[in-house]
C-alpha cells in the first residue's frame, strides 16, 4: 500500500467546495476523488460550469474567502500542496499570468532565485536553459523582451518555463491551449508530452476539448455537476463509455454530421438572388507593419452562403472581418456590395446595419449595465428605419417588444430573459444574446469572429445548431472565422485558408478538408487532434517560427514548407484555378508541372 501511495503524485480524497449565496448554499464540487501517478498525464474533462477549475483552484489554495473547502486529504508527493514548490499551475490566458511591465528574464530569474536560493548569474543561466527546454530559440533575446512582444504560443512557453522553474512534482494545466490556433496548439501539446517524459513531472490537464484530452492523457476523469461521473483509461472512456453524459460529450466533440446539402435546400433565399455575390473584395491590402495585415486579397461571399476563413493567429482573418464591417479602412483595393463599389470613408453609413458581427468573448462585447431588453432596443434604434430598402424596424413600443420576444425565442432564450443582465447568464447563453443582438436588425451578412472558440463542446454544438436553424428561416450570409477545423468542416459551404495575409487555398469545404492541396492547409489539418486516442496521438506540429519572418520577396510560406522550390524563395505564386478550387502554390503552375493536355484533371501535388 505504501508503494501505491508513493506512486500517486496527486491524491485528492473527498474534496467538496461550497459557496454561500443569496439563495443558500451552492455546492460546486461534491466529494470528488482523483489521483495522478508519477510521470503521468491525466485528464479532467467536462462542460463549462462542471466544477473542474474550482476543484483545481481548491488544490492550489487560490479560492477566495467566500468558498468553503472540505476534504479528507489533498497531497502532492505525500505532502500538502505548496504552490510554487511542489505544484505549479498554468492557466488559459498566459498574458494574464505574466507581469506586463516586467521583462521575461526578470520574471524567470525571480522564480528561479526563490526556488534555488541562488545568485543572479546562476539564476540567469538557469532561466536561459528553461527557455531552451520549452523550445524557445534565442533565449538571450527573449529574456530582454516584455510579454506583449511575444505571440500567444510563445507566452504559453514562457509560463511553462516559469512553472518548471519551481521544479514541481505536479503541473496543473487549466485549458492551456483553448485560445491558441491549431498549429501552435499542436506545438504546445507535443511540448508538454516531451517535458513530462524528460523531467518526470506529472501533469493534470483540465480541458473541455476531447481531442486534446485524447492526444495527451493516459487516464481521464469525467466531471458533471461537481461530481466525478466516470473515470478510467483514455481508451475505456473514449471507446467504451458507461455514462450517458460521457457518451453525449463525445458525440458533441465529434459533431453531429448534418447534411450540408439539406441545410442549403432548406435555407431561405429568394430564387432570384440564389448565387448572387453579396460582398466582394478585390485586391484589398491593409498593412500594419512588415509582418501583419492582408495583401492583394480577393474574396467573394454569396447570398445565403457560409464562407469560413481559417488560419493561424496573425494570418489576417480578423483584419478581413474589420474591413468588411467598416471598422477598418483598406490601404488599397476595392470592396463591392451587391456589385457596387463602397467608399471606405462612409462604409458604415452605406451598410445601414446590413453587416453585423459576433465576437469571441460574449461577456466583453455586452454592456454589463444594460439588461437584455435594453441591449436589443439599443441595437434596433441604431439602424435607420427602412434602411437600404430593407424591412422597416418599427420603433413603436408594442411592436418593438414583439420583435425582442421573437428574436429571444429564435435564439433559444425566453421573453422573461429580457429583464436579466449579462452576469446572470452562462457563456453559451451570453453568446446567444450576442447573436440575437446581431440578427434583430435583419442583417444580410453575419460575421462570426472566433465566436465559438471559448465554448465547451456541448455549448458549441448548441450554437452551431442555432445558427443552422436561424439561417434556414432568415437566409443571411455568414463569414465564419475560426482556427477550429472541426467546426469549419461542419458549418461552412466554402473555406478560405489564410497565411501571412494571403488566401493560399479556397474552395468547397468538403473537398479542401478531405484532400488539401496547399502544404499549409495540410499542416493545419494534421495539427488538429481528433477525439479518438489512436488518431489523436498522430497529430503533427510544424516547426515553430518563433517570430522569425520570411523575406517579402518570395512565397510567405516557403520558410516552413517541405516542398519549397528555389523559385518559391524569389517569387510570390499566383492563384491557379481548377474546378472551383483556387490554390496559390507553384506546384500547380504549368511552368513547374509542364504543359497539360486537354481534359487534364489536377490532383494534389503534395
Write up this protein.
With 606 residues, the protein is of the alpha/beta class. A hairpin with a 2-residue loop joins strand 9 (219-224) and strand 10. The strands form 4 sheets. An 8-stranded mixed sheet has the order 16-17-18-13-19-20-22-21, with helices on both faces. It contains 23 helices and 22 strands.
> Roughly how many Å apart are the termini?
55 Å
Q: What is Rg?
A: 26 Å
Main sheet: strand order: 16-17-18-13-19-20-22-21
The geometry reads as: globular
Mean pLDDT: 87
Which band does the percent of strand residues land in?
15-25%
The largest pleated sheet is described as: 8 strands, mixed
Q: What structural category arises from helix and sheet content?
A: alpha/beta
Number of helices: 23
The poorly predicted ranges are 1-5, 257-262, 386-392, 546-551
Number of distinct beta strands: 22
Q: Residue share in helices? A: 25-40%
List the main descriptive attributes of the protein structure presented here.
single chain; 606 residues; alpha/beta; eight-stranded mixed beta sheet; six-stranded mixed beta sheet; 23 helices; 23% strand; disordered N terminus
What are the SSEs and their pairings?
Blueprint: H1 2-7, E1 8-21, E2 24-37, E3 41-45, H2 52-60, E4 67-70, E5 73-76, E6 87-90, H3 94-97, H4 104-116, H5 120-133, H6 139-142, H7 152-165, E7 170-174, H8 182-199, E8 202-207, H9 210-216, E9 219-224, E10 227-233, H10 234-239, H11 244-254, H12 260-265, E11 277-287, E12 293-302, E13 306-310, H13 317-325, E14 332-337, E15 340-341, H14 347-351, E16 355-358, H15 372-381, H16 397-410, H17 427-439, E17 445-449, H18 457-474, E18 477-482, H19 485-491, E19 494-499, E20 502-508, H20 509-514, H21 519-527, H22 533-536, E21 576-578, E22 581-583, H23 590-593
Parallel strand pairs: 3-8, 3-9, 6-7, 7-8, 13-18, 13-19, 16-17, 17-18
Antiparallel strand pairs: 1-2, 1-4, 1-5, 9-10, 11-12, 11-14, 14-15, 19-20, 20-22, 21-22
Amino acid at each position: 500500500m505504501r508503494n501505491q501511495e508513493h506512486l500517486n503524485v496527486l491524491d485528492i480524497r473527498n474534496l467538496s467546495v461550497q459557496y454561500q449565496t443569496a439563495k443558500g448554499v451552492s455546492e460546486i464540487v461534491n466529494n470528488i476523488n482523483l489521483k495522478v501517478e508519477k510521470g503521468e498525464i491525466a485528464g479532467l474533462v467536462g462542460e463549462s460550469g462542471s466544477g473542474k477549475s474550482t476543484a483545481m483552484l481548491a488544490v492550489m489554495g487560490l479560492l477566495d474567502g467566500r468558498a468553503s473547502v472540505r476534504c479528507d486529504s489533498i497531497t502532492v508527493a505525500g505532502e500538502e500542496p505548496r504552490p510554487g514548490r511542489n505544484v505549479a499551475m498554468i492557466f488559459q490566458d498566459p498574458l494574464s499570468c505574466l507581469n506586463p511591465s516586467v521583462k521575461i528574464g526578470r520574471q524567470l530569474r525571480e522564480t528561479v532565485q526563490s526556488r534555488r536560493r541562488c545568485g543572479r548569474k546562476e539564476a540567469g543561466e538557469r532561466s536561459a536553459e528553461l527557455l531552451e527546454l520549452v523550445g524557445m530559440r534565442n533565449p538571450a533575446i527573449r529574456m530582454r523582451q516584455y510579454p506583449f512582444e511575444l505571440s500567444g504560443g510563445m507566452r504559453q512557453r514562457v509560463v511553462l518555463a516559469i512553472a518548471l522553474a519551481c521544479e514541481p512534482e505536479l503541473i496543473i494545466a487549466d485549458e492551456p491551449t483553448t485560445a491558441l490556433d491549431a498549429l501552435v496548439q499542436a506545438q504546445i501539446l507535443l511540448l508538454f508530452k516531451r517535458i513530462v517524459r524528460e523531467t518526470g513531472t506529472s501533469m493534470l490537464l483540465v480541458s473541455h476539448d476531447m481531442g486534446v484530452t485524447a492526444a495527451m492523457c493516459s487516464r481521464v476523469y469525467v466531471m458533471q455537476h461537481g461530481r466525478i461521473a466516470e473515470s478510467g483509461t483514455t481508451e475505456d472512456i473514449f471507446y467504451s463509455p458507461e455514462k450517458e453524459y460521457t457518451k453525449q460529450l463525445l458525440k458533441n466533440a465529434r459533431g453531429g454530421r448534418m447534411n450540408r446539402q439539406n441545410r442549403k435546400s432548406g435555407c431561405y433565399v429568394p430564387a432570384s438572388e440564389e448565387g448572387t455575390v453579396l460582398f466582394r473584395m478585390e485586391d484589398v491590402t491593409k498593412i500594419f507593419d512588415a509582418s501583419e495585415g492582408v495583401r492583394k486579397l480577393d474574396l467573394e461571399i454569396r447570398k445565403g452562403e457560409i464562407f469560413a476563413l481559417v488560419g493561424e493567429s496573425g494570418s489576417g482573418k480578423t483584419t478581413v472581418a474589420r474591413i468588411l464591417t467598416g471598422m477598418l479602412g483598406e490601404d488599397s483595393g476595392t470592396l463591392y456590395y451587391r456589385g457596387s463599389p463602397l467608399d471606405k470613408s462612409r462604409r458604415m453609413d452605406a451598410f445601414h446595419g446590413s453587416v453585423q458581427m459576433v465576437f469571441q468573448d460574449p461577456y466583453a462585447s455586452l454592456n454589463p449595465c444594460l439588461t437584455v431588453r435594453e441591449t436589443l432596443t439599443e441595437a434596433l434604434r441604431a439602424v435607420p428605419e427602412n434602411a437600404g430598402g430593407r424591412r422597416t424596424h418599427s420603433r413603436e413600443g408594442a411592436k418593438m417588444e414583439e420583435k425582442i420576444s421573437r428574436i429571444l425565442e429564435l435564439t433559444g432564450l425566453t421573453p422573461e430573459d429580457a429583464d436579466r443582465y449579462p452576469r446572470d447568464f452562462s457563456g453559451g447563453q451570453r453568446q446567444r444574446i450576442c447573436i440575437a443582438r446581431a440578427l434583430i436588425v435583419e442583417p444580410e451578412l453575419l460575421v462570426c469572429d472566433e465566436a465559438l472558440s471559448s465554448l465547451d463542446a456541448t455549448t458549441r454544438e448548441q450554437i452551431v445548431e442555432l445558427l443552422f436553424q436561424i439561417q434556414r428561416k432568415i437566409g443571411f450570409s455568414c463569414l465564419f472565422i475560426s482556427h477550429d477545423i472541426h467546426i469549419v468542416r461542419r458549418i461552412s459551404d466554402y473555406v478560405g485558408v489564410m497565411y501571412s495575409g494571403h488566401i493560399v487555398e479556397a474552395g468547397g469545404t468538403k473537398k479542401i478538408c478531405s484532400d488539401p492541396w496547399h502544404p499549409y492547409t495540410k499542416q493545419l489539418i494534421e495539427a488538429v487532434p481528433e477525439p479518438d486516442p489512436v488518431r489523436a496521438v498522430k497529430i503533427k506540429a510544424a516547426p515553430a517560427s518563433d517570430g522569425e519572418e520570411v523575406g517579402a520577396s518570395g512565397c510567405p510560406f516557403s520558410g516552413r514548407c517541405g516542398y519549397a522550390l528555389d523559385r518559391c524563395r524569389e517569387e510570390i505564386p499566383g492563384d491557379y484555378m481548377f474546378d472551383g478550387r483556387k490554390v496559390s502554390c507553384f506546384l500547380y503552375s504549368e511552368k513547374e508541372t509542364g504543359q497539360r493536355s486537354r481534359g487534364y484533371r489536377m490532383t494534389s501535388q503534395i
